[in-house]
Design a protein that fits this description.
Blueprint (H helix, E strand, L loop, with lengths): L2 H18 L10 H9 L3 E5 L2 E11 L3 E2 L2 E2 H4 L4 E3 L11 E3 L3 E8 L9 E10 L2 E8 L6 H8 L8 E4 L2 H15 L10 E4 H13 L4 H9 L12 H11 L5 H27 L8 H13 L3 H12 L8 H13 L3 H11 L5 H17 L3 H14 L4 H18 L4
Parallel strand pairs: 7-10, 10-11
Antiparallel strand pairs: 1-2, 2-9, 3-4, 5-6, 7-8, 8-9
Length: 408
C-alpha cells in the first residue's frame, strides 16, 4: 500500500470516528466563551474538537475604501497571472476563486507561535464578505483549524501579504501539530508584498500595508491598533478576560483583508494598461524594469517614452542609464548616445558605465579609436569596481593604443 493510499484510508477512519462523536453544546463551554462571542459581534461555533468564535462582516458593492469603490474593484471577473509574477506567465485568475487571507498571531514564529485569529475574505453575490475565526483558548485550536479547512481547496487562489514567508508556513505548522492536515491546499498563491515591492518600493520605500493603502487608496485608518501590540491584547484576554481592545484587533484584521482585495485590482490594472494608470516616474521606471526582465522591449520603449514625455527633465542618473541601455538593445543608438554623454562627466557608477559604453561605441561603431581611448581612460579613472574590472580596462586601453600607433 502506498503512502497516499494509507493517508486516504486513515482519513476515512478519522471521519467515521468524528461523525460518531457527539457535538458538545454551547453550555458545556465556559461562560467567558459566550461573553467573547457577544462582545465581538460573532457566534460561538462548536464541533467535535471544541469551540471557536466566528465573525462575519459583509461589505456591499457601494462600500468605499478611501477613494476606491468596491464595485469598481470587482468589475473585472479575471486578473492576469503575470501581474503578480516577476516573469511573464500566461493565464488569467478568476476573482471569485480568490481567498484573501490574513492572520494575527501570538508571536513572529517558532513552535510556540499560534494564529489566534484567521481572517478569510472573498467575493459573494452582493459584495465582499470577511469571515474571521477567533480562538477563545489554546485548547480549542484544533476545533478552529478543522472548520477553517472548509475555506481551503485546490481550486482556491490564496492572496496574502507576506504570506509566503509568514502566514502560510505558520498555518501549515499549526495544521500539522494539531494533526488536522499535512498541507494547505490551493491552486495558486499570490503574495502581494512582492508585487507591490516590484513597482512601488523605489518611490515609497515603506511597503507596509498601512502605508501602501494610504499612498495608493488615500485610506487613513483611525485609531488602528499597531501590529506589535496585537499579541499582548490576546494575552490580556487569556489572562484576565479583558475585551477592551480585542474588537480593535478584529477591525485591524478586516482592514488588512479589504486592502488586499483592492490591491489585486490596482496591480492588475497597472499591467493590463502597461503602466498607463501610473503617473510617477519612479513607478514607471520600476515597471519598465519588470518588462525588461521579461524581454518585452516594445513595452519597455513605450514606458520610457512616457517618462521622457512627462516633463520631468531631472530624471535620476540610474534611470537615464537604464533607458540608454534599452535604447542600445533596440538598436536606437541615436537616442542612447546623447544619454551616455549626459552621464559621462559624473563621477559615479552611472558615469563609469556611460564612459565605457561610449568607448565601445566610438571604437566599434564610429571607428574612432582616439575618442574611444578618451572615454576608456575616463572610465578607468572613475571605476568604482575591483581589480578584475580594472584589468579589463587596462587591456582595452592597450588595444586602443595599438590602433592609434602608426603602422610601420
Amino acid at each position: 500500500m502506498s503512502d497516499e493510499d494509507l493517508q486516504k484510508k486513515l482519513h476515512r477512519f478519522r471521519n467515521l470516528i468524528q461523525e460518531n462523536q457527539p457535538k458538545p453544546s454551547e453550555s458545556s463551554f465556559p461562560e467567558r466563551y459566550r461573553t467573547l462571542a457577544q462582545a465581538i459581534g460573532g457566534e460561538l461555533v462548536t464541533n467535535h474538537a471544541g469551540a471557536y468564535c466566528l465573525v462575519k462582516t459583509f461589505y456591499p458593492f457601494e462600500h468605499y475604501h478611501g477613494s476606491c469603490c468596491l464595485d469598481d474593484a470587482a468589475a473585472s471577473a479575471t486578473v492576469p497571472l503575470s501581474a503578480f509574477t516577476p516573469l511573464e506567465e500566461p493565464g488569467e485568475l478568476e476573482l471569485p476563486s480568490m481567498l484573501f487571507i490574513d492572520t494575527e498571531t501570538t508571536g513572529l514564529g517558532g513552535a510556540g507561535a499560534v494564529a489566534f485569529l484567521v481572517g478569510c475574505g472573498s467575493l459573494v453575490e452582493d459584495g465582499f464578505e470577511i469571515r474571521q475565526y477567533l480562538l477563545p483558548d489554546y485548547s480549542d485550536e484544533c476545533a478552529m483549524l478543522e472548520d477553517l479547512q472548509q475555506e481551503l481547496s485546490d481550486e482556491r487562489v490564496l492572496v496574502s501579504y507576506n504570506g509566503a514567508t509568514f502566514d502560510l508556513p505558520l498555518l501549515k505548522d499549526r495544521l500539522v501539530i494539531n494533526r488536522v492536515a499535512k498541507d494547505i491546499p490551493y491552486g495558486h498563491h499570490i503574495d502581494l508584498l512582492h508585487a507591490v515591492r516590484r513597482i512601488f518600493r523605489r518611490r515609497l520605500k515603506d511597503c507596509r500595508l498601512t502605508n501602501i493603502e494610504r499612498e495608493l487608496f488615500s485610506f487613513e485608518r483611525s485609531d488602528d491598533i499597531p501590529g506589535y501590540l496585537v499579541p499582548s491584547v490576546y494575552f490580556e484576554w487569556l489572562s484576565s478576560d479583558s475585551l477592551e481592545l480585542l474588537p480593535d484587533v478584529l477591525e485591524h484584521n478586516r482592514l488588512d483583508i479589504l486592502s488586499l482585495f483592492y490591491l489585486v485590482d490596482h496591480i492588475a490594472s497597472i499591467h493590463r494598461s502597461r503602466g498607463e494608470v501610473l503617473d510617477e516616474v519612479d513607478d514607471l521606471h520600476s515597471l519598465s524594469r519588470v518588462y525588461s526582465r521579461r524581454r518585452d522591449q516594445a513595452t519597455v520603449q513605450s514606458i520610457i517614452d512616457r517618462m521622457e514625455g512627462s516633463g520631468d527633465s531631472e530624471l535620476a542618473d540610474d534611470i537615464i542609464l537604464f533607458n540608454a541601455l534599452n535604447f542600445k538593445r533596440a538598436n536606437a543608438l541615436d537616442r542612447a548616445v546623447p544619454l551616455w554623454h549626459r552621464l559621462s562627466q559624473i563621477d559615479s557608477r552611472e558615469g563609469f558605465w556611460a564612459n565605457l559604453e561610449l568607448a565601445k561605441y566610438y571604437e566599434h561603431r564610429e571607428h574612432d579609436p582616439a575618442r574611444a581611448y578618451l572615454f576608456a581612460s575616463r572610465a578607468r579613472d572613475i571605476c568604482p569596481y575591483g581589480e578584475t574590472r580594472q584589468q579589463q580596462l587596462v587591456l582595452r586601453l592597450e588595444r586602443l593604443l595599438a590602433k592609434l600607433r602608426p603602422e610601420k
